[in-house]
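Subject: Protein record for review, amino acid sequence with backbone structure tokens
Concerning: The relation between a protein's sequence and the shape of its backbone.
How to read it: Take the token row as a discrete description of the fold.
Enclosed: The protein record, placed directly beneath this head.
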Amino acid sequence: MPSGAKPALKRDPNAMTESGTENPIRSAFTALPAVPRRLPNALAGAESRKRPNVAQPLSQSSRPNGSVFQPRAPVLQGEAVYRGPLAVDGIISGQLGVSGNSLTIKQRPKNGVVESVPELDGEISFKDMLRVNGHIAGRVFSEKGTLIIDASARVDASIEVAVATIGGTVNGDVIGHERVEVGPGAIVNGNISTPSLCIKPGAVFQGDCRILKSAHREK
């Protein structure tokens, strides 16, 4: 063997068993070339730290303006027919057609003291029950329905229903073919005509009251 050449396999002096014979398993491992130790992937760790979390929700500033707000209670709750203009400060979604009409309105909340403008100004008719949470004007009619006016609502309209439960402000005449209830804190500026009237302490009533004959008594 030339003097400059190095043997490919080296004998490990420790690769001997206690009996003096060569250990074949240890000799096989020492015959393999040395494998350099793997360095940690620094770039992969840096990328994982810098990678954005796709599950994070978008901030409000990145969303389209005008579509992110907490809507207030709808001006009307219930099934009703409305004829008149509709002023909306919010979002309208749905469809209008010959049949199967549906419309969803989300109104922005009012900030501060703002001059009250009717959100609905026209004729409203319903059958079963209708709740008013906002400001409406015009005329409200139902032959056998119950009208509930919330404490924060305002109705500048003439009302003709079977049952009227008033908790807010009403500017107009009220006709209740069965009964009219005026709750504490309510304000009624107009005449009331009904067979049964209940005005609770704390209510304000300015107008004339006319007690009608009940339909049950006539029968």
Q: What stands out?
A: The two ends are 133 Å apart (CA to CA).
